[in-house]
Amino acid sequence: MDKNRLFNNLTCHSEGAQRPKNLLSNSFRSFLSSGPELRASAHQDKLHEESRDPERQRRVTDEHPYKNALEGIRVLDFTWLLAGPYATRILADFGAEVIKVQSQKVATGAESNSTGYFNTWNRNKLGITLDMSCPEARDIALRLVKMSDIVMENFTPRVMSNWGLSYDELVEVKPNIIMLSMSGMGEAGPWRDFIALGPTIQAFSGITHLTSFPKSPPLGLGYSYADPAAGLFAVLAVLAALEHRDETGQGQHIDISEYETMCSLLGPAILDYTVNHNVATPQGNNPGYIAAAPYGCYKCLGDDRWCVIAVSMEEEWQALRDVLGHPAWSREERFSTLSRRKEHSEELNELLEQWTVKHTPEEIMNLLQQASVPAGIVEDANDLANDTQLTARNFFIQTEHPVLGKTTSDNTPIKLSRTPARFRRPAPLLGQDNYYVYREILGMSEQELSQYIKEGVIS
Amino acid sequence: MQRRFFATLRVTGGRELRPYVRREHSLLAGLEILDLADEKASFCSKLLADLGAEVIKIERPGGDASRWIGPFWQNTPHPERSLPFWHNNSNKLGITLNLEKKDGQRILRQLASKTDVVIETFPPRYLKKLELDYESLSQINSRLISASVTGFGQSGPHKQYKSCDIIASATGGQMCVCGAPDTPPLKPYGEQSYYIASLFAAIGILIALRERKHSGKGQHIDISLQEAVAATLEHVLVRYFYDNVVSQRQGGSRQNNSFCLLPCKDGYILLMIARDWDILVEWLDSEGMASDLKEEKWQDEQYRRQHWNHIVDILTYWTKTHTRAELFKLAQLMHLPWAPVASQEEAVNSTHLLARNFFVSVEHPELANTGLTPHIYKYPGAPYKFSSSTMKLRRAPLIGEHNTQVYQEKLGLSISDLERLSASKVI
Prior knowledge:
The complex is a heterodimer of chains A (459) and B (427). Chain A folds into two domains: 41-49 and 67-266 and 396-455, 3-Layer(aba) Sandwich (Rossmann fold), CATH 3.40.50; 295-380, formyl-coa transferase, domain 3 (2-Layer Sandwich). In chain A, a hairpin with a 6-residue loop joins strand 7 (295-299) and strand 8 (306-310). By secondary structure, chain A is an alpha/beta fold. Chain A is elongated, with a radius of gyration of 26 Å. Chain A has a six-stranded parallel β-sheet with strand order 3-2-1-4-5-6. Chain A has a three-stranded antiparallel β-sheet with strand order 7-8-9, covered by helices on one side. A two-stranded antiparallel ribbon of chain A has the order 10-11. Chain A has helices at residues 3-8, 41-52, 56-62, 83-93, 116-121, 137-146, 158-162, 167-173, 198-205, 207-210, 226-248, 258-264, 267-276, 314-324, 338-343, 345-356, 361-370, 381-385, 388-392, 434-441, 446-455, and strands spanning 74-77, 97-102, 126-129, 150-153, 178-183, 252-257, 295-299, 306-310, 375-377, 396-401, 405-410, 415-416. The longest helix of chain A is centred in the middle third of the chain and has 23 residues, at 226-248. Chain B contains 18 helices and twelve strands. Chain B has 427 residues and is of the alpha/beta class. Chain B has two domains: 18-235 and 379-423, 3-Layer(aba) Sandwich (Rossmann fold); 259-341, formyl-coa transferase, domain 3 (2-Layer Sandwich), CATH 3.30.1540.10. Helices cover 37% and strands 14% of the residues of chain B. In chain B, the strands form three sheets. In chain B, strands 3-2-1-4-5-6 form a six-stranded parallel β-sheet. In chain B, strands 7-8-9 form a three-stranded antiparallel β-sheet, with helices on one face. Chain B has helices at 2-7, 42-50, 83-88, 102-114, 126-129, 134-140, 165-171, 192-215, 225-230, 235-243, 277-286, 301-306, 308-319, 324-333, 344-348, 351-355, 403-411, 415-423, and strands at 32-36, 54-59, 92-96, 117-120, 145-150, 220-224, 259-264, 267-272, 339-340, 359-363, 376-380, 384-386. Chains A and B meet through helix 1, helix 5, helix 9, helix 10 and helix 11 of A and helix 3, helix 7, helix 8, strand 6 and helix 9 of B. Strand 12 (415-416) of chain A pairs antiparallel with strand 6 of chain B.
């Protein structure tokens, strides 16, 4: 069977496909509909009170001598799950005013406000409710668009246009709006309607197949890597579009395909295919084209403890021999040059592992790095949380959430010397900033707002 | 062979592809960048160059060491034929400069006094010794934005530690959640840490650029490969901090109790079985393959989690009777987010990528006299489509290709100056 044909024939609504019996009635279920919805109305009221305070915003900035890097940029954030919220979190961390739009109906599962997952990806954002299934909601949304610089969303392609919020419609109220749409496959193309999540995108891109040991079944990555990766491309794209707007006065629509973001991260292998017709295969922890030996992941002392070592330069090899105490095997002819070591890498790895199994990964990393040999601990979440380097660089931040209490999360790895990212507030509770956004930004009257709340439009 | 793949393009559904407006003004036009980075962050200025910035790659005389990283064009090692180098340095200008020489340092200072951004990957302290670090350069150009990408960052007890992709993958927490319980931890394919760190650095640069519009001042950006990896672990740290769970490598058949990779007639398929349980069981039952999964006890999510292996056994028996495409198509009709595990060949040849014009033609006129093969190649393009512009790619620079142009235009050096500098091995 021609392998390439299989993929060429994949289309969403293929005429040949038949549904199994009895399944039509169940044909749609919303994503991630599990998970309890925690409400915290007492806290919400208190926070509403705070957001009424006109001094609030100013107080926050007065405490700090510098302006936030992205101050003055307003983002209307329709994103959900991970890829989108990950992107808007970066903008919010650096001071953009990100207004996250939710509704009671969708605030479940990963979008349930008082969960660790939500709190991690939505810090520093404002939260409002707007039920887009109500006809009146569109006008309110367009009023918000008019007040914003950027609109971001990561629904499947039809959703925004079904709400009457396509790019063409946004431009009518805000000619220079920047709209970013991110979806599994992108806005156009034969696969645009595929239902996709991070791990399925990884499977499509080839990285699941390639992340394994040679001649072994696929293993893939044990987490959704494609989502944060796509989120990074999204941030880069909107920042570039802002530059363009500053120069030309023009906004634009950006279409991001998460599938293509993963392909971008496999660029050299793709180029090897299009140029040389070489097909990439799983490499395990082998160095592949990198000139290094010994190189790989080695078992250490302890329960399922591992380290990595990567020796490419001659002085690193000599330093490694010093640390090992110049064992007899290390003087053998078959290990005398890098190319010979690479040729005999399997035997070399076995001999080196006889040493690593006698030491903890911490000992190995310290011993070798002190001797300028590249080495590292295979760190799990607990190791990361206690990593002296990460801790010294404030990679983790402790924060307080009104429902979750004291929480910890990762800081941004983008360390700006003069205007660093700042933690300003935990993720919003559902509709926490309705008052501030609708009254202060949109200028709704008290009466108008309560009417919309009563009708369930703002809900 | 290549031509045949591209000829199979068929658009069978979805919206018609609109040709985007030709670019009149590239997104980052006017932004000037000096790229001193090796393979750890050459992707950073590539991203910005592809968006329209003018990037000058500065290599040591004879070319950067990353030119010796394979695979190579026609599988023959040569510094002008490294495919990773081609990929990571498209749209850049290339000059050579010896930073170990006083004249070289002087020239870099002159270039840095007029540029917007410097990107570098030297070990911390190296540029300080040469008085070419951000502190020194910012004194001659207060608007300068500088990004440093290193294994462990510019501060902390491990800042001098050496790194590369596998070290970053391990110390950043990636490897311990990849692989299977009966295998060692596994590094994801490719140089993921370099690319992720490059993305963070590029974002940092554009954020600093926006800030500079208000303050008139540049700043330094400190990126650690370890942190870049640790910042893209999705559930791993969240589950640790909120649920006290230390995620382990689980192999293909049990990814967080929600996804599993199962064998089909023609490869593997990724199934999501954390939700839509009833649909799945009905589907199996309609083919008479549900076995005992129809029983009431399997309705309990907790029970399913405890007896995962049994579910996987039954599902495997079923998936093996189908091709990936059969299962995938039906799953899509039922809105189940499943996916065929694509080989690299399949992934690259997808009609979808072709229909979206993901690949961009790049000319390699320098290979013209080598005969045989055509010298236009398809490069992977950018994953974003801007309505204001289309992407264009120019091949990576040859060693010192733009020496004359850059040194004459930027610094006003004469031909005799260049000859002198070349003779003293500065360029």
